[in-house]
Specification:
The protein is an alpha/beta fold. The chain contains five helices and ten strands, in the order E-E-H-E-H-H-E-E-H-E-H-E-E-E-E. The strands form two sheets. An eight-stranded mixed sheet has the order 5-4-3-6-1-7-10-9, with helices on both faces. A hairpin with a 6-residue loop joins strand 9 and strand 10. The two termini are 25 Å apart.
């Protein structure tokens, strides 16, 4: 069975994004020693290299990410690691979970992207995991993976802690999910203040009806 891996970053005090759905403010006091800090880009590119399938969710989030990565290779100031990610995300099999996105919204990724809607979600994810192949990667999509977590469909949480304090914002977790977390590994990068913690979630209570 394939693993479903969630990769997200958070502030030291546990926030996923600001209340206005951005995160630039989190880096107001970012330490100058860490420069451009490409460690998170490098790690997510590494994960995507090893995955067969990428899952994203939400029409607004998906459209913004698609537009960004489609145009990125043509920008004058891009980085090599982000250009590699842009090419990987273009070619990988993708699933977008949304009740409002339409097939015409997928272009130019329409040949590699499938839409999954509400009632099909859990069966579709379970079927994906049962297929032969390499890892399934889920990025961003906080609400989606919090839901999948309590349905026992997440195999690993890869959480990158940035050396910043948010102060306020949207927490990474929705409430208090009934899971235990077993630490599998940690990692740091030279020249970066990021700390990666990899956990295996273990569901402790039945999925709510």
């Amino acid at each position: 069975m394939r693993k479903l891996i969630v990769s997200n970053f958070l502030t030291l005090d546990g926030y996923y994004e600001s209340t206005d759905k951005t995160f630039d403010r989190f880096f107001d006091y970012f330490h100058e020693d860490y420069g451009s800090n490409e460690a998170f880009d490098e790690y997510n590119t590494e994960l995507l290299r090893d995955a067969d399938t990428l899952i994203l969710s939400g029409r607004t989030s998906f459209m913004a990410n698609k537009d960004y990565w489609v145009s990125y290779p043509d920008g004058p100031d891009g980085t090599a690691i982000r250009r590699e990610f842009a090419e990987l995300i273009r070619t990988k099999e993708k699933y977008v979970v949304s009740n409002t996105i339409a097939p015409q919204d997928l272009a130019p990724w329409h040949d590699t992207t499938r839409i999954v809607r509400g009632p099909e979600l859990y069966a579709e994810i379970a079927a994906l995991k049962a297929r032969p192949g390499r890892d399934i990667l889920l990025q961003l999509s906080r609400q989606l993976w919090n839901d999948l977590l309590v349905h026992n469909l997440v195999d690993e949480l890869h959480l990158t802690i940035f050396p910043v304090i948010g102060g306020e914002g949207i927490p990474l977790f929705t409430g208090r999910p009934p899971v235990s977390l077993k630490l599998l590994s940690t990692r740091t990068w030279a020249g970066s203040g990021n700390i990666l913690a990899v956990y295996r979630p273990i569901l402790r209570e039945p999925v709510p009806e």
